[in-house]
C-alpha cells in the first residue's frame, strides 16, 4: 500500500494595525480554507483599537492561529516579523481587512506542484459598494492558466499585490526576499524581485482574494495628494525598475516601463489641479527621472493621460492642470479631430498654450 505524502504546512502572515472591525472576517476566512495543514501568524503592529486583543481571543479558540505583538513599525516590518515566525514550507500573506475565498490556497498550492514552479498567483476581486468586481487589468493578466517565465509574460509584473500569491519558503529564503520597511507601496519591489527570480511561476484565472478599499479614506492608496505618499511611490518604482534592469532583458524592461510602471500615474495626474508647488516639483522630477529618455507618449496610458504625462515631462504645469480639470468636468471620451498626421485628441489647453507635438496627442489604431 502506497502512503500518500502529507501536504506541506502553509503559513499565512497577517499584519494587523487598528482593524478590529474587519479582523474577525479575515481570520474566519482563513480558518475556512480547504487547504490543510495551515497556520496563521498574526502580527499585531502596535494596534491602539483593541485589534491585538481580538487576535488573542481568536488564537485562544483556534490552534491554527498564533499572535505576535510588536511596537508599531509599519506594514513591511510586520510582514517580515511574521515571516520570521512562520514555520511552513509554503508562504502566503493576507491583509487584515480583506477576505480569502475558501478554496484559494488549495488552488494555488496545486499550481506549485509543477516542476520548477516557485510562485503561483491568482486573480482578485475588490468590493465596489456591495459588489465584488474583478479589475479588467487583472482579468487580462490572468486570462488563462499558464506556467511561464517573466520573459514569456512580462506584463504580469503589473500584478504587484502581496496577497494573491503563494511561494515556496525555500525560494523566499534562497533569494533573500523581504518587504521594504518604512515605505508605502512596499508590495511592488518585492513582488517584482520574486517574478524575476522565479524559475517559473503559475498564473491562474481563479479569483483567490477579496480586496477591501475602505470608504473612510484610511487606505494608503487613498492618500496620493501628499508629498510623503508621492515620494514613497517614486522610491518603490525606482527600486522595482532597478531590479528589472539588473535582470538584463531589454524586452522585459521596455514592457515594464511602458505598461507596468506607468500604469497608476493617471491617479496622480488627477491631483495636479490645486496641488502644492512641492508636490508638483516632485511629480515632475519623478516622471523625468523614470521616463525622460523614453517619454510617456510610448506608454500604455490612455491618450489623455499620455498627453498629461508629456506635459509633466515638459514642466508645463498650467497646461497639465487644464487638461485634468477639463477631464474632471467632462467625464467620458475626450473630443477627437483629424489632423494631417492622423486622428488626435482635442483637449483645450488655453489660448496662450505652446504647441503640442503630434505624438503627444496621437490616437493609436485601436483607439480610433
* Domain module count: 3
Number of strands: 11
Q: Are there runs of 5+ residues with pLDDT below 50, and where?
A: none
Question: How widely separated are the two ends?
Answer: 65 Å
Global shape: globular
Kindly report the average pLDDT value: 95
What radius of gyration results from the CA coordinates?
22 Å
**Percent helix:** 25-40%
> From the helix content, strand content and strand pairing, which structural class follows?
alpha/beta
Structural commentary:
By secondary structure, the chain is an alpha/beta fold. The protein has three domains: 1-100, Spore Coat Polysaccharide Biosynthesis Protein SpsA, Chain A; 101-217, no CATH class; 262-367, no CATH class. Helices cover 39% and strands 18% of the residues. It has helices at residues 23-31, 51-61, 75-85, 104-111, 136-141, 169-174, 187-197, 227-247, 250-261, 265-269, 277-291, 303-313, 317-329, 358-361, and strands at 10-16, 38-45, 65-70, 90-93, 117-128, 131-133, 146-148, 165-168, 200-211, 336-339, 342-345. Helix 2 (51-61) links the parallel strand 2 and strand 3 (65-70). The protein is globular and about 70 Å long.
Observed structural traits:
368 residues, alpha/beta, Spore Coat Polysaccharide Biosynthesis Protein SpsA, Chain A, 3 domains, nine-stranded mixed beta sheet, two-stranded antiparallel sheet, 14 helices, globular
